[in-house]
Automatic annotation (TrEMBL):
One of its GO terms (molecular function) is DNA binding. GO terms for biological process: 'de novo' pyrimidine nucleobase biosynthetic process; 'de novo' UMP biosynthetic process; glutamine metabolic process; L-arginine biosynthetic process. This is Carbamoyl phosphate synthase small chain. Pfam families: CPSase_sm_chain, GATase. Its EC number is 6.3.5.5. It comes from Formicincola oecophyllae. L-glutamine binds at S167, G363, G365, L393, Q396, N434, G436, F437.
Amino acid sequence: MEPENPPMQDVDSIITAAGGAAHVARLAGVGSEAVRKWRQSGAIPAKHWPLFLSFPGVNMAMLTALAPRQKSTTLRPKPLQAQRAATPPAPSTHHGKDRMTQRTTPNHLRANLHQPAGATAALILADGTVLWGRGFGAYTPAEGGQVAELCFCTAMSGYQETLTDPSFTGQIITFTFPHIGNTGTNAEDHEASHMLAAGMVVKDMVTEPSSWRNEGGAEGDLRAWLTRQGKPGIAGLDTRFITRLLRDHGPQSAVIAYPAEGQVDVKSALERVRLWEGLEGADLGSQAARPARSWDKGRWEGFIMPKAPTGTPRRVVALDFGAKDNILRSLVSAGCAVQVLPGTASFEDIMAQAPEGVFLSNGPGDPAATGVKVVPVLKKLLESAIPLFGICLGHQLLAHALGGKTTKMARGHHGANQPVKDLATGRVEITSQNHGFAVDEASLPADVVVTHRSLFDGTNEGIASPRHKAFSVQYHPEASPGPTDSQHLFQRFVANIDAARAARANTQTSPNT
Ligand SMILES: NC(=O)CC[C@H](N)C(=O)O
């Protein structure tokens, strides 16, 4: 469907519709000088669009149709961006490479509904930013595929593990590293049976795979893989612009539209994006679990990890909220026999396995929402003094069970280079992370110890309850992708189980001695 030309608007009429300059300045928290500059430049900064959209009579089409009529210091795009904006958006295709550059200006002040020639897909954000590029992977309806939270991931490698990490359910991943897809795909690098993220955004178009680990020749190409996963991707966008936007203005809902018929329905896509309720309050963790199963595969051969302790394998129940396979492998290699149960398993079902330790997995969505069902079970497990270990969502759920709270972060952590300090030892580990919620340390009861903090933003990265033999970390010691500095935490869990075993053995023998 051809998008209608939006009605011509000017800033003055929009400000009048919104109740006048003084009223708007007060609500937007800006001075009258700023409003004057908006009028002068003929554009309203996108960060104020949500405010304008709350006034009757103002809609997204009006705001996106504003065309700056005069450049001002505050609103002028940088020279390179201006130059790009002036270049027609024709993709270049040399040497078999498809490297369309984001030729519409990467400046949301110039967001527009009009699809440039050569663009086959768009990334549409809730603030009205529309970025045109070239689609790949699976086609979507003209009004876009799954609406999701747009995030950026800074990992330079491991895109296949990232894309199949179930914690990314409900998110579109912008890769900040420009060359994604070069090494193709294979059957081993999945972290779950399939991709759950809603889509992917890259700067350079994926090229042909060049790696001995690519499987199936052309079938291993990330584009073919993505099509088989039924998910869309978009290339040619200025991923640094997206990253700065999310960094400065917080998480945003977005959608990728890549219609087979070519024409994107931007207006409908925008409406869908703006109606989506977001990840806060979404219990995705309860839905992400796979069926109950026992797991016996350890880490890959050649992988260096601390020597597994001897003794009968420890019976561990792993509560699955969307677990990454490498966590299960790490537990096995650390000396555990793992039974995976859905995260919503009852206390009785868990105890029927006679667990010596219970592991709480990573997973998508809002931990507070998943906690409504799960926390009562975790409280019973804590009372039973079974050693507990949680990772990421599991960490957040443990915090809730211990009486704490979690909050949505202004800037989520997604990447493989995040420094974390162990407060007990002072050691710093570089970690793999993927979370948009964080444990609020101020909410934790006095007997819960804060064990780790992020050196990027000081947010909580680990807690322990010595009284309950429970500990957890916000980051991913199993890596995949990322560094393995924190692999030793699996040994810590096993040591806790062994200590509880020894204590049980003592109580059983002591009456006779
Ligand atoms: N990796 C995870 O387990 C993520 C936990 C949670 N969904 C968050 O975004 O914070």
